[in-house]
Amino acid sequence: MKKLLLSLTLLLVAEMALALPFETTTSPDTYPIYWYKLKCNGYYIGATSYEELTATSSSSSDYYLWCFVTTKQGKTIIYNKGLGKYMAKGWEFNSAMYSKYVNYVVLGSGNSFRICYEENGNKMYLDCGEDYVALSNSGSYITAIQALVEEPIEPAGRFFFYDLGIYDDHCVINFDYYPGEGDSGCSLILFINGNQENLPYYIQRTNEVQTVEATARVEFINHRIRTIEETKTFTIPAREINNGDVNGDGVVSGADVTALYNVLLDGTTAAGDADVNQDGIVNGSDVTALYNILLAQ
User: Which of 33, 141, 163, 285 could bond 112 through an S-S bridge, CB–CB 3.0 to 4.6 Å?
Assistant: First the structure.
C-alpha cells in the first residue's frame, strides 16, 4: 500500500512539474492570444526594430510582449508581438513556425523556465543582463507575467441561409453574409455532408427523398474576427413522377404520343412534361416510355 501511495505521489509531482506556467496560444492568428512579459534577472526581455533582443527595466511597447505557441512536435516556442516573428536565436528572429532554428521553452522548477536554442545537437540557453541578451551553456531562468489577452471580436454583419430553392429537377442550397463595419473582407465556404462544395450548391432531385447536412462558414481576413459557422439540415423532396400527360389535358392517351412527336419533330413546347422517363433529355427514349405507360393502362 505504501509503495502504491509513493508511486501515485511521484506521478502527481511529475505531472505538476510538467504543467506550463503560462497559457499557450494556438497560433498568433488564432484568438484568444495570451501575451506575456518575460522577466529575467530583474529585466524584461524585448525585441528591437532591428530584429535583435534586448533587456531593459521598462517594457511599455509591443516589442516586449510574447506569446507561447505549441508546435506539432510538442515544443513550446516564443513569438514577439511587435516584430510578428518567432525568436530564432539569442538575437535573431524567424517567421517559420516549424523551423528547427526556432527557440523553445525548457521548464524549470516552480513557475520558471529557460529558453533553449538547439543546433546540430548543441544546446544553448538565453541569458540576459542590463541592455544585453546572449546565449550561454546554462542560461538564466525566466518568468512569464501575463500582460494582455486579446479576445476574438464578434462579426458586425448579418449571416443567413436562404430558403431551399426547389425546382422541377433540382434544388439549390445557398447562404450569404452582409458585412458590417470593419469585417467586409471575408470568404464564404460551404460543406455538404462534410465535403466542401461550390456556392450555390445544386443537387439533383431523384425519385426518393434525400437529406443533406449543410455547414456554412464565414472566415474573415482580419483573423481576430470570430469565424461564423452554422449547420442546417435540408430535406430534398422527391421528384414528381411523370405519368405521361405530355399535352397537359389531364388524360394519358394517344393524343400525348402526337404531342410528344410534335416536340421531337417540330421543337414545339409541350403543355405538360415531355421528358417522360425523367432523364433530363427529350428524345426517342421518351416515346418508348410513353408507349409503356399506355400499354400498362
Answer: 141
